[in-house]
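Tokens for chain A. Residues wanted.
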């Protein structure tokens, strides 16, 4: 369903503030996979999302979706097949429009646009049915402005909008990070339920180790633009926060050792081992 082959992305190349965001990413999601991506700030998680959606073009490598290469395909041409929920609850909805108007826009994302009414009686019944699944009472507030909703309600609506037309790929970009713990847990539960029911191929990035372990069937760890560890379904079942932290520290230590050895090639001598 999704394949990244040796994808690289560097910001400000050749400048003093050069930053390697992605360094040879190889990643494959089969249909129905739910892969969680964990990593610290600057690991490259958001850049990964942006090259998949076409917001950013990779400097090298290939991106394939549904068996077709989309590396140079612009964002608007990929959007019909991709649903995305952002960290900011305000980013995925239009505050000045009603709940049903927002849903109608999402509903026509992968359809030919016409001059027909956006919200029909049939669509309204469908929206009410889908909103009822969220258990937030939003099905009774179809004509309410989205700007009047709480952050958790807006994020739940964003999640529903992103999955309304069963996209080929669902991207969840720290989508619970801006919420309080209770709302974050609610959105995480909704996410698992919707993804499982619709069998959506999903990639979710998060800082939350417990969430990364609890959700999905595979887990990938990123650091400094690289995938430094990957756990399949069976391995993931045995993961704990303590084990994940140990792996992360081990990988970071190994990366530091490699940098040190690159800085002091054989024969040069390490600091404190003679020489200057």
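Reply:
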């Amino acid at each position: 369903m999704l394949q990244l082959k040796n994808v690289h992305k560097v910001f400000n190349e050749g400048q003093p503030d050069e930053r390697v965001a992605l360094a040879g990413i190889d990643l494959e999601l089969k249909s129905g996979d739910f892969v969680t991506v964990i990593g610290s700030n600057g690991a490259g998680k958001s850049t990964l999302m942006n090259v998949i959606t076409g917001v950013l073009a990779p400097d090298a490598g290939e991106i394939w979706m549904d068996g077709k290469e989309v590396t140079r395909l612009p964002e608007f041409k990929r959007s019909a097949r991709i649903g995305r929920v952002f960290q900011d609850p305000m980013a995925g909805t239009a505050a000045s429009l009603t709940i049903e108007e927002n849903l109608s826009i999402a509903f026509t994302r992968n359809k030919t646009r016409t001059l027909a009414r956006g919200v029909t009686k049939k669509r309204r019944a469908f929206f009410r049915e889908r909103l009822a699944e969220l258990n937030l009472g939003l099905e009774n507030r179809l004509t309410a402005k989205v700007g009047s909703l709480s952050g958790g309600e807006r994020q739940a609506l964003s999640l529903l909008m992103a999955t309304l037309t069963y996209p080929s790929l669902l991207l969840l970009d720290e989508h619970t990070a801006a919420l309080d713990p209770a709302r974050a847990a609610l959105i995480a539960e909704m996410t698992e339920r919707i993804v499982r029911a619709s069998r959506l191929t999903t990639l979710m990035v998060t800082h939350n180790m417990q969430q990364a372990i609890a959700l999905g069937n595979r887990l990938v760890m990123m650091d400094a633009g690289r995938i430094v560890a990957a756990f399949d379904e069976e391995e993931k079942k045995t993961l704990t926060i303590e084990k994940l932290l140990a792996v992360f520290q081990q990988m970071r230590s190994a990366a530091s050792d490699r940098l040190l050895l690159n800085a002091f090639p054989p024969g040069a001598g390490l600091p404190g081992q003679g020489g200057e």
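The chain has one domain: 2-252. The beta strands are 2-11, 19-29, 34-38, 60-65, 68-69, 82-85, 169-173, 202-206, 218-223, 226-231.
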